[in-house]
Fold this protein.
Amino acid sequence: MNTLLQRLKTFCHQVTSVRTFCSASRYSVWHRPIATAFVAIIGCYANGTALAGPIVINTVQELQNIQNNLSGDYILGSNIDASGFAFAPIGSNPFQGGTAFTGTFNGNGHTINGLTITAPSSDNVGLFGYVIGYTGGGTVENVRLTNENVVGNGSGSVGGVIGYSDTGHISNVSVSGSVKGITMGHVGGIVGSGGSYYGASSLTSSFSTATVQGEAGVGGLVGEGVFNPDFPLGIFKSWDLGWPGGIGPKPGEPGPFAPRQ
């Protein structure tokens, strides 16, 4: 047994992170059962330092505390009742003096119920306000948001999951409830606005039944999905049953909304 442990430790010295171990799959290590067990039971070392697993979130306060470490890796350990909690978006615009969320968030199939964000004068509003993925993280996956109530300033992007996605990646999420932008801008059931100069954002295997309200650039899934034509937000196997449908037009442009997928 000691020989096996030594061999495993030696192998771990050859990688720089747990993600490198699964880099060929393009999926988080936490989606790889063998790798998860390997990390949890044996422990993995890179450059002689133990690598911790994701931070487990079980309460709405712990969820809010992600704001204190925006580059961390997180996983839900249980369903969360956020009713009655005045939630603030996680991450803000780094080009306006804020700090974006650049970590990873895995809902682990759990539900966040009753999330309420009331920020009518704030830009980039959602569970995650501003997400950047081109640095290696920026993923939100495997979570259900039910009975959500989000209000923000639509001119700066308002979404049920992410306000603004700059090369962020969303997969296997769902939203129900209400998402509202107070002024003309970008409002979406899942993403307010997405796109970047640095790479593409994506929305995969997700759906929304939320009611979405705004003056322009309003979509059931995404308010505006093309910030830069070279690196748009790609939508795959996602659909909505809320109002309105698909992707909203840019402010000042007529519809129609993009067809549901």
User: Anything to note?
Assistant: The chain has two domains: 1-53, 54-240.
